[in-house]
Amino acid sequence: MNLISNLKNYFKLKSEKKNTNITPEGICPNCWGKQEWEGEFYKKVKVNNITPEHKEYDNFIHEVAQKLTKITLKKDILICETCEKSYK
């Protein structure tokens, strides 16, 4: 999956109150928590009743994806390019 698909899947599961990982797949948990994207999701999407079919939802996902490119984990060794923490 790519970053946008991972974000959409993560927020979809969250909005359906299903179990998810701490972060979207491939995203550094340390940096994700500091940037508070889940709070932004609830402010922009949940409060305004925006569904995944809505254009504004896609805009939000793309905005997040653009800002997350620096905190993605390298697949083979899972090291964040920003904070340089490694994960198993």
Protein described:
By secondary structure, the chain is an all-alpha fold. It has helices at 3-15, 29-35, 37-46, 55-68. The protein has one domain. The longest helix is centred in the C-terminal third of the chain and has 14 residues, at 55-68. It is elongated, with a radius of gyration of 13 Å.
Distance between the termini: 19 Å
Give the % helix: 40-55%
What is Rg?
13 Å
**Integer average pLDDT:** 80
Spans of 5+ residues with little confidence (pLDDT < 50)? none
| Approximate strand percentage | under 5%
How many helices? 4
Main β sheet profile: none
Task: Give me the count of strands.
Answer: 0
* SSE order, one letter for each helix or strand: HHHH
Overall 3D geometry? elongated
Number of domains: 1
Give the assembly state of these chains.
single chain
Which structural class fits the helix and strand makeup? mainly alpha
Tell me the layout of helices and strands:
Layout (H helix, E strand, L loop, with lengths): L2 H13 L13 H7 L1 H10 L8 H14 L20
Helix pairs in contact: 1-4, 3-4
What labels describe this entry?
single chain; 88 residues; mainly alpha; 4 helices; 0% strand
Please outline what is shown here.
With 88 residues, this protein is mainly alpha-helical. It has four helices and no strands.
